[in-house]
Input
Amino acid sequence: MAANIAVVYDACVLYPAPLRDLLVQLATTGIFRAKWTELIHDEWTRNLLIKRPDLNADRIARLRVLMNQNVPDSLVTDFEDLISTLELPDSDDCHVLAAAIRADAKIIVTFNLKDFPNPILVRYGIVAQHPDVFIGDLIERYPYQVLQAVNTILARLKNPPQTFENHLEILANQGLQTSVAMLRDLRYES
Output
């Protein structure tokens, strides 16, 4: 992965807070350019507030603003005209592909790989990757930057504080088993 590659995050990978935190922290490292849209924000925040009505909607809205502010040039705009020209198994995902095309992204990070079939994406020079594959690739190429990102998150987590192992278990439970194993190995090597 080239350091300047653009990567679009699908809403499903921004929904779970620990994974979102890691993906956003990784986006601040400069090893790739993370991208999303207001439609992607709308999707993950709407689903989060439906599933967790106990959460404060104003705080979630503030989080969106902070994500946009802290990840330079993350917000993709002017992609809407492409949506109706695209076909995917789930037409509700066409906005994600449209954003990736407009951003000249090479990767869409998603749990929903079946919704982004390779024969369609290859036409645009894009691949869909599970977050475990995406983060694992980053660990292989930029091990210390990824480890530093995890340590930065841990330093922020105060209520309750988390240990490195506890945090890795949470990430493993979110589907990052390979990345977690790599991070454990990396931590014990350093």
Remarks:
- Residues 38-51 form the longest helix (14 residues).
- The domain at 6-130 is CATH 3.40.50.1010 (Rossmann fold).
- The longest strand covers residues 6-9.
